[in-house]
Amino acid sequence: MWHYVYGDVKSYMRRVAIEKTTEEKAVEYLLMDSLEFKIFAIEWFTKEHVYKPAISDMVLNEMLLYPQLIKIGIAYMEQLPVKLYQNVLYELCGSSVSEIRLAALKSMSGSLTQIEGRFMDDVFVLFKGADVYKELNLLFNIADQNNINSKASIELALSLLEKDIIVSRRAYYFLLNQTLNQKQNRVVQKYYVEYKSFL
């Protein structure tokens, strides 16, 4: 019952607050300790199309500190100019939190229509030593969709052949579509011979 009576008042107050907020005030809100204020600020930046590098850097820093902001933060970041967006994705992929890396990869998969090989090379380097299947599978899917055939992607996939069977099998299938030198081909063939019953 309360919601029916006061729900409209709350949404009206929020709408008025958004209309009356300035960029400076939104920055203040973003830097406050309250998660609600941070969310409000990111929504305001998105609604007002505030995509300055300094603002996106602040939003990125808050996302890294507060994983609860990832979803709304990514929605904001997806509106940035491509180069700035790629810089943010690079930073998110370098996070030590798997949830953040996975969200960045999902965003990359769904938002970037054309991904440069050089950018992907930098991202592949960030995943050296990774062993989370969901992340690696998504990373290889993005590379496959964009026909990425690079030294960094091949090196990562070859290093993953030594991981558990689920991760190494995904790396193996990625390598089948890559242009490999003789030495790399021998490594892939050796893997096939050893694990063919699991493939």
Can you walk through the features of this model?
By secondary structure, the chain is mostly helical. It has two domains: 1-113, Leucine-rich Repeat Variant; 115-199. Helix content is 74%, strand content 0%. The protein contains twelve helices and no strands. It has helices at residues 2-20, 23-31, 35-47, 53-65, 70-77, 82-93, 98-111, 117-126, 133-145, 151-160, 165-176, 182-195. Helix 2 (23-31) runs antiparallel to helix 3, helix 3 packs parallel to helix 5 (70-77) and helix 11 crosses helix 12. The longest helix is centred in the N-terminal third of the chain and has 19 residues, at 2-20.
Quick structural gist:
The chain is mostly helical. It has helices at 2-20, 23-31, 35-47, 53-65, 70-77, 82-93, 98-111, 117-126, 133-145, 151-160, 165-176, 182-195.
**Overall geometry:** elongated
Q: Which structural class should the secondary elements be placed in? A: mainly alpha
The count of DSSP E runs of length 2 or more, i.e. the number of strands, is 0
Main pleated-sheet profile: none
Q: How many domains, in number, for the residues? A: 2
Query: Gap between N and C termini, in Å?
Result: 58 Å
Mean pLDDT: 89
Low-confidence stretches: none
Rg over alpha carbons: 21 Å
Strand fraction band? under 5%
Helix amount, in percent? over 70%
Just give the CATH class of the largest domain. Answer: Mainly Alpha
Number of distinct helices: 12
What's the CATH topology label of the largest domain? Leucine-rich Repeat Variant
What is the string of helix and strand elements? HHHHHHHHHHHH
Task: Name the CATH architecture of the largest domain.
Answer: Alpha Horseshoe
